[in-house]
Amino acid sequence: MPEAYVWDRPAAGVPIALAASGPSSSALAAEYADGLISADPDARVVELFDEAGGDGKPRFGQVAVCWGPDEAECRKRLVDQWRWAPQNWKVKAELPGPESFASASQFTREEDLARTIPCGPDVDKHIEAFNRYVDAGFTHVAFVQVGGDSQAEFLDWAERELMPRLHG
Questions:
Q1: Please, what is the average pLDDT of the chain?
Q2: Backbone phi, then psi, for 65, in 5-degree steps?
Q3: Tell me, what DSSP letter sits at residue 148?
Q4: In 3D, which of 108, 119, 109 has the Cα closest to residue 66?
Q5: Scanning 51, 60, 78, 164, which has its CA 20 to 30 A from the CA of 101?
Q6: What is the residue-wise DSSP string for 37-101?
Q7: CA-CA distance, 54 to 52, in Å (whole number)?
Q8: What pLDDT was estimated at residue 146?
Q9: H or E element: which one contains 144?
Q10: Can you give the residue ranges of every domain in the chain?
Q11: pLDDT at 94 over 80
Q12: Pairwise pLDDT comparison (1 vs 149), residue with the higher score
């Protein structure tokens, strides 16, 4: 097993956020972590986190998007690279490896994915997905672009079209 070494420890420690999806994990995050993480825009998780003592701590949301100039191609990319997304966390947490994920997601349909993950060049769809997290009470939202081959183009588009709209 490889060893890990920390050569230069920060004086104040490193803030740690904990992913949560329900009452137990929200309470753990509130008590032990410096912030909350969620990949679902669930206002109830934020509320549970706050009620358990997390009020005032940062809440990080992770919104998946699949940007590209052709929505049909983006939808195909989702099926190829992100088809496990509709499974809930209770299922995903129990899957031991890639073969299990493949089996659990074999019946995922393109339209199921596109209903929850914005696809294509329409900036309004991506902003709507972002706003679901803001409306749920998240203080920080990260975009996750599905598709390694399209990262550079996504970042250029985000700088040119998405970020100005979010900041405006």
A1: 90
A2: -135, 160
A3: G
A4: 119
A5: 60
A6: EESS--HHHHHHHIIIIITTS-EEEEEEEB--S-HHHHHHHHHHH-TTTTS-HHHHHH--SHHHH
A7: 6
A8: 95
A9: strand 140-145
A10: 58-167
A11: no
A12: 149
| Residues, the chain | 168
Structure tokens belonging to residue 64: 């998946």
**Rounded Cα gap, residues 7 and 30, in angstroms:** 29
Rounded to whole angstroms, the Cα distance separating 40 from 86 reads 11
Closest to 114 (Cα-Cα) out of 143, 157, 146: 146
- pLDDT of residue 2 exceeding 70: no
- Structural tokens at position 167: 């900041």
CA 66, chain centre distance (Å): 12
Give 22-59 pLDDT, tens digit per residue. 999 999 999 999 999 998 999 999 999 999 999 999 99
